[in-house]
Amino acid sequence: MRRAYHVDEIRRAEADLMARLPDGALMQRAAAGLAAVAARILRDSGGVYGARVALLVGVGDNGGDALYAGAGLARRGARVRAVLLDETRVHAGGLAALVEAGGRTADETALDDAELIIDGMLGIGGHGGLRGRAAQLARAAADAAAAVLAVDLPSGIDADSGQVAGTCVRADATVTFGAYKPGLLIDPAAEHAGVVELVDIGLSALPEHAAVEALQAADVAGLLPRPSHATDKYLRGVVGVACGSVDYPGAGMLAVGGALRGGVGAVRYSGPRQVGEEILRRWPEVLVEAELPSAAGRVQAWVCGSGLPADDEYAAQRTKQVVDSALPAVLDAGALTYLDDLDLGEHIVLTPHAGEAARLLGVERAQVEANRLDFVRGLAAELGATVLLKGSTTLIAEPGGGAVRANPTGTAALATAGSGDVLAGLIGALLAAGLRPLDAASVGAYMHGLAGRLARREGPIAAGDLLASLPRAWHNLQ
Ligand SMILES: NC(=O)C1=CN([C@@H]2O[C@H](COP(=O)(O)OP(=O)(O)OC[C@H]3O[C@@H](n4cnc5c(N)ncnc54)[C@H](O)[C@@H]3O)[C@@H](O)[C@H]2O)[C@@H](O)CC1
Ligand SMILES: Nc1ncnc2c1ncn2[C@@H]1O[C@H](COP(=O)(O)OP(=O)(O)O)[C@@H](O)[C@H]1O
Ligand SMILES: [K+]
């Protein structure tokens, strides 16, 4: 699991540790970790000795880290040049160490022939987007041929929210110190960080709950339902799917397809007769049941809403019956328009995209897009349900607070009609198999993204291709 903490939490943990260590020790640890990663990158392109390294050096401790790491590389024979953001404000000890090791200051032409650029302009002390010379240097780094290694985080991203306001450094790799920051897990900032490596500097006084966490492959493998030897189809779980309508039958098909790939023993379909007949033609193994959920056979969880129209009495009734069953359920798409007066709870997973979330909160879509972390937390708290906010980084929040999950497997290939229906079916199956709502939603998003990544290798994908690659995604984790 990758755990990320907010800047004020990291600062408190850092102060606790600094009080117990000699002056400057923490920066030395950070710089040593940074220099080790830089050396590894340079080794892959011909070695540290003689390599040309440019440092972008800001006015704070982020610049200090870069200078001490640069000194370490210079001692190993690298030709290190420091481009200072402000010559009147620079970490004096770091600059002295660099010069003593044979490095020197330079103007920004140092970027032109560098093999590696180390971005030490701004770390967790940064506020707002890059301005003036910092923005200019970020653009020059983007134009240069060198690989870019960010110190702690790419300069200019918002560490706490993952927002990017204006120009910001785009790194190939980031060395982050002590703990992840939410911005390293949430787009658009995460996308600017490249491969993120965590350097342990001994921070221990971090809060019990992370602000944001991201499941990794091993976590997901541990959560996937696995049938025991002596199981049967009912013990594995039965999921009910109340999706699809006469006007939108495809959404019902795709949700059923996702549910069939979610590790349950059986899928029951409840909906219009003609949609049920279509489903049976494609999947004879589905149990096609009554048109209303309350009349269907027993299930352990429901999926409802994909392909349900708004302002429709039958759709409202299907949604209400699913929620009234008090079973765990996924409410997607159309079902999100019928939430008034329903008794939601943590066991209900709502799956809005930013537009649907905006409508539920009575705000503009752009506001949600601009601060997805706050809005997913707010929506979960306000509606009293588990909320999965879809998007380039899908986020999942519980109504009682706690760590928000950020999905690490997203790919733009998923932005294709019907892909959300597959996701809803998949999460419903994981709920029926017994995963708790937060885990079902985050494992579902992880597998959905992984299936998208596998499928896109063969070319552009449609939602149906996700169904075909889900078993491969599953296999990859076993
Ligand atoms: N937190 C930790 O545990 C550790 C932190 N260290 C380093 O210290 C960094 C934090 O250092 P600082 O607190 O000095 O902060 P930074 O070095 O991130 O930034 C400091 C200064 O940049 C200026 N600034 C802020 N926003 C700006 C903007 N948008 N454009 C231009 N200038 C701007 C301000 O004058 C601010 O005081 C971390 O990111 C990390 O690199 C490490 O040295 C050691 C361990
Ligand atoms: N830029 C993106 N990068 C990664 N995933 C995305 C992006 N845009 C959308 N997605 C994902 O694609 C899926 C689209 O779902 P949704 O908006 O409900 O579409 P539909 O209703 O057509 O199925 C969601 O899982 C969402 O997280
Ligand atoms: K930085």
UniProtKB/TrEMBL annotation:
Every YjeF N-terminal domain range: 10-209
Lyase in keyword set: yes
This protein's record includes keyword Isomerase: yes
One example of a Gene Ontology biological process annotation: metabolite repair
Enzyme Commission number: 4.2.1.136, 5.1.99.6
Similarity section: Belongs to the NnrD/CARKD family. In the C-terminal section; belongs to the NnrD/CARKD family.
Subunit record text: Homotetramer.
NCBIfam families: yjeF_cterm, yjeF_nterm
Protein name per Swiss-Prot or TrEMBL: Bifunctional NAD(P)H-hydrate repair enzyme
Chain's gene name: nnrE
